[in-house]
Design goal:
Elements: H1 27-39, E1 46-49, H2 56-68, H3 85-92, E2 99-102, H4 110-119, E3 129-132, H5 140-149, E4 156-161, H6 169-173, E5 176-179, H7 185-193, H8 203-212, H9 217-225, H10 235-241, H11 246-257, H12 276-291, H13 309-323, H14 329-341, H15 349-363
Parallel strand pairs: 1-4, 1-5, 2-3, 3-4
The structure holds zinc ion (ZN).
């Protein structure tokens, strides 16, 4: 890493909501941050942690806007009035106010930190606020360098982390910490509706989008960007756009695998995917479903959400027929198949073919460990 990457000089209003009321979920964190803004209390420094895409940086920016506003509202919101010098300036040139984002895009070294601080020296004063993006990637020494260098100033930090526990304990003990969580279903739907071109979309299509994006605003926004904009948002359209159409192929594979009419040494072809690991994951998703079927609206994998029952019922029926009527035979056969497909060495095409062969032997009654 040779040069210091620039923190965002200006945020587009769309990419960066202006007020807490623009945000969904994160009730506890937002309440605490509103109190900070309302009372003008911006210490101690704080940690915002949660999975990537959950909205850590967005929340940091909204809070910072409130912190820099000269006349925040009684509810703890930035005023957003045109005559508020700071609110207007925050959109155009936040660093001029003393708001900096340090985003090294990986694991920085101490020299990188030193250079960042040296080149920003003129921008820092007592009201400054520095956001440390992916702070849990820095390592203790680099993080220490940051905080020690600025010790004795009243600069406040917002540390963004995926996993709070990876931050040094002394730092954690001196910070307020807020865990951000994926959006609940209603909030996630509201988030999507605000971004989709056509309304009203199919609720089931929304659920698939939420599932594929794991309820994370950043991930869901990416999914929306992959949809064809002009046509209506349908369940099938969403599945196609997000490459969630694989269960048809995988179901056909399982039907062939469990077909006792086919000779035991005939090996059905495992449907392709970008990576062998994804092929294996898909086999496991179906296998899991064969053991513990969920209702169509409750499937854990977004590709299985709202699938017609027949798609997966038939492989289940075949597995039962293969296992025979003996009590516990179905479970036993399932366990043997699971043993084949949870092996750690399913890493390439040859290993996958071997796993399919072993599965064939299991279902046709051959001995298989
Ligand atoms: Zn203002």
């Amino acid at each position: 890493m040779s040069e210091v990457q620039s923190e965002s000089e200006a945020h587009s209003p769309l990419a960066s909501p202006g007020a807490f009321t623009d945000l969904l979920g994160q009730v506890r964190a937002i309440e605490a941050l509103r109190t900070r803004v309302r009372t003008g209390t911006h210490h101690p420094s704080m940690i915002l942690h949660g999975p990537p895409g959950v909205g850590r940086r967005t929340l940091a920016r909204v809070y910072a806007r409130g912190a820099f506003c000269v006349r925040p509202t009684a509810a703890g919101e930035p005023c957003r009035r045109e005559d508020c010098h700071h609110c207007a300036r925050f959109d155009r040139k936040p660093r001029g106010l003393g708001y900096l984002e340090y985003d090294p895009g990986g694991t920085p070294d101490s020299a990188h930190v030193d250079e960042f601080l040296k080149t920003r020296k003129g921008l820092l004063d007592d009201r400054s606020m520095i956001v440390l993006v992916d702070a849990d990637e820095y390592g203790d020494r680099v993080l220490d360098r940051f905080l020690k260098t600025l010790q004795g100033t009243s600069i406040s930090f917002i540390l963004l982390a995926r996993d709070e526990r990876r931050l040094p304990k002394p730092i954690r003990s001196r910070c307020d910490s807020f865990r951000l969580r994926p959006l609940a279903r209603d909030d996630a739907h509201a988030f999507l509706r605000a971004r989709l071109p056509s309304a009203p979309p199919d609720e089931r299509a929304l659920d698939v989008l939420v599932g594929a994006g794991e309820g994370l605003p950043g991930r869901m926004a990416e999914q929306v960007a992959r949809l064809p904009g002009e046509s209506g948002i349908t369940l099938d359209g969403v599945r196609r756009a997000l490459a969630l159409t694989w269960p048809e192929e995988m179901s056909a594979f399982w039907r062939a695998l469990l077909d006792r009419e086919i000779p035991a040494d005939a090996v059905p072809r495992l449907p392709g995917a970008d990576e062998p690991s994804e092929q294996v994951r898909r086999v496991r998703v179906i296998l899991q479903h064969l053991r513990a079927p969920t209702t169509p609206g409750a499937a854990r994998d977004p590709a299985l959400l709202y699938r017609e029952a027949a798609l997966l019922d038939e492989p289940i029926a075949r597995l039962r027929r293969c296992a025979g009527p003996r009590h516990g035979a179905f479970e036993e056969m399932w366990r043997r198949l699971a043993h084949v497909w949870t092996s750690g060495d399913l890493i390439d095409g040859d290993a996958l073919v071997a796993a399919v062969q072993r599965s064939r032997r299991v279902v046709s009654g051959g001995v298989e460990g």
